[in-house]
Structure formats: structure tokens, C-alpha cells
Predict the 3D structure of the following.
Amino acid sequence: MKPMPNPPRKAARVLILGGTAEGRELAQSITDRFGAAVEIINSLAGRTETPGALSGSVRIGGFDGVAGLHAYLLEQAIDLLIDATHPFATRISGNAAEAADLAGIPRLMLIRPPWPRHPLDRWIEVGSVEDAASVLPRAGRRAFLTVGSGEIDAFSALTDIFFLVRTVDEPKSPLPLAGYQMTTGKGPFELAAERQLLAHHRIDVLVSKASGGKATEAKLIAAREASLPIIMITRPLLPPGERVETVEEAVAWLAAKSGL
């Protein structure tokens, strides 16, 4: 009697909490290495209008807290969860930690390395966007504001400061700032263009989150070359759990956890 063939192996279902360049690269790398052996679901918050092409299926929108994410993990039979969100996306990272623990699902955080501080950098490190707004009047009068569209309200009381505001998408309504000009774009940004932007708008202070990554690092180099102060909002604490800094390490973790 011929032995019965083994049944085909079920594809591992992986939920990537993304919306970042790392999340996009991770999805592509998983597909390139494992093909149909891994089924990818990319979860995006929906904050940008053009997220770009992604390998795998895409889900847009929130989960309605820990309970909603926990229910989704169970309903979709998710095997592994990889949190590749922005370093400042503390709410979803915290929810992911709790939901994965409740569901008994392995979870990994893919966290981009922070920017190293150069000896010539003039960083003013603060703990929050509100703190950045508080110290800004003492640092300059023409600010390049690169903190994301959701944080601009914190600067609305600074009526004697000009803001050059950069967001990914054009805002749908006027910003709550007395004097400002918009520029839109998504990294990577070229150093020559960042130098020109600072000079053209006579910027004398940069406001940034300590996001890390190569895509937006050129603004720091341009500010350093011009000896401009940088109000740097430090990273918030992340939930405990396994974490890596590179896509390659995340793919290796997935392979080990799934047995592929």
C-alpha cells in the first residue's frame, strides 16, 4: 500500500501593523522569501491618502481598542503579529501588546534605529509636542515644523512665529496657525533640496520628532550645516516585548516562529 501523501501545509497568517517604509519593505521581503507559504495582511491607520503599493492584502482603519484588535486576531486566525508602526504610535503599539497576549499570539516590534546625535548638532531635547511649543519662542522665530498633521494644534497659540509646515498630504482645511506656509512630500528627501528649503524660507529653527530612519534625516544634516537649533521631541516608551531594528531580523524571527 502506498503511503498517504501529507496534506498541504496551511499558510501562516501574519498581521503587519504598518504605514511605514519598514512595514512596506517587510511585506515585500516576506513575500520574496516565503511566497504563498505566508499570507500577509497589512493594517494601515489610513492617515495618508496614498499609502503606496503593498505586498499582501490591505486593511485600512482602526480596531476600536484592545478588544477590537483581540477579536480581529481570533476571527482572522492570525498566527503572528509584527508591529512595524511609527515609533510615536504608542496607542496602537500598546493595544497590540495587550491583544496579542490575550490571544496567545507571538508579537514582534520592528523599530527603526534612532538618529545618532552628531557633535555639531544643536539639539534641544523635549519630552512632548507641548514642551516643544513651550520652548520654541526662545529658539527662533521662523520654524520648520515637521511633527505630523495631528500635532499642529499644540503650536496654535504662538501667533508671532512663522511656520513652514511639512505634511505628507495637503490639509483639507486651514491650519490653526497665525502665519504659515505649507509644503507637502514624502521621503526620502534630498539634502540639496532641504538646504534650499531652509535658506529660501529663512528658517532659524527646526522642530522634529526623533523618528529615526534615512528618509527624513537630510533635514537634520541641513540644519546642522546651517548651525540651526533643532527642537527634538524624544521617543516615548514602548511596551515590553521582542524587538528588532531591521527587516532582515524581522524576517528571520518570522521564519523561526513559523517553522519555515
About this structure: The two ends are 30 Å apart (CA to CA). Residues 125 and 232 are 5 Å apart (CA to CA). The chain has two domains: 12-112+237-258, 122-233. The chain has seven helices and twelve strands.
